[in-house]
Structure formats: C-alpha cells, structure tokens
Amino acid sequence: MGDLAKPPLSNEEALELCNQKPEETKDFIMQQTMYRIKDPRVSLPFYTGILGMKLLTKLDFPAMTFSLYFLGYEDNTPFELGTSSRTEWALSRKATIELTHNWGTEKDENFAYNNGNTDPKGFGHIGLMVPDVYKACERFEKLGVKFVKKPDDGKMKGIAFITDPDGYWIEILNNKVTTDIVAQCS
Question: 3, 49, 159, 171: least surrounded by Cβ within 10 Å?
C-alpha cells in the first residue's frame, strides 16, 4: 500500500491534479451507486420506509435472473413500473442507489455480501445529508436500525453511521455540523 505516513496533498497540488472539466464531459452526471442485495423484501422497505427514498424504477432481467431497483430522493408522482419512458427518466436522475438482486440469494440463510468495511476492505459507505443528525438517529433507533457509530461516539461528534439490511454502511451527516468538524480537525 505504500508509505502511509506521507503528508496529504496540498490544496495547490489537489487543484493541479484535477484538471478543468473537459468540454466533452459537460453533460456527464454521477447517476448511481450499485449495491448487491440479498432480499428486496427486506432492503426496499429499509430504503423507502426508513430512509425516505422513492422507488424510481424497477427492471427485471429474467434471462440473467436478476432485478434492479433504482431509488432516490425524488418527487412522489404516480407512475407505472416497467415503461421505457419511466426507465429513461429514472436513469437521468442524479445520485441514485441501484439495488441489484440476484434471484435466489434470499433463500440462502448463510448468504452475505462483503460490505467493503470488513476484510478485504474496499468500498466504504454512502452518505445521507439530513437536517438534524440527532433527530434522524432517534428515529432510526426507534425503528431498530443498527448503528456502527452514534452521533456522540468517538472523536467526531455529530455524525453517525448506520447499516442497511445487507451490512452496508450509511453515514448520516449535516452539512453545517460536518463543516464545523472539518474546521476543528484541520
């Protein structure tokens, strides 16, 4: 992994490494983060009922035995699942979650995906911006959500980490509080 003791990039070096956005990429968007899920009957209620996301579209691939569920924070306009216009609309939304269900995994009680925070480490977490971390966490606690870190645990106060039904970490943060934490730790 190299020398972990090296100092971080300076602001100047970071800016230098991040070139101007090429004209050819002006219409690119960060559209989705994909999680593999064991059971949509468990994951969909978590992301919609607990985190407040909306189902944007659902796509089934019977020949390859998997389904995709796109979720995000969008309006609650009624729609019909499975239409090409709805699929096109959903795939044009920014910052969605794509839950991928490989059929049959829900029947294997020992089946689990690596969440990226256990060995071998890799992907870390997604983050949700909320108006009040403490109120959100009170609600999560009442709903039986599992915590990795509560807002007052550890050195970084005011942020939390919860897990979804598959063990993926979700950071719960507030932009003002997080800005203050960064200022204190810098």
Answer: 3
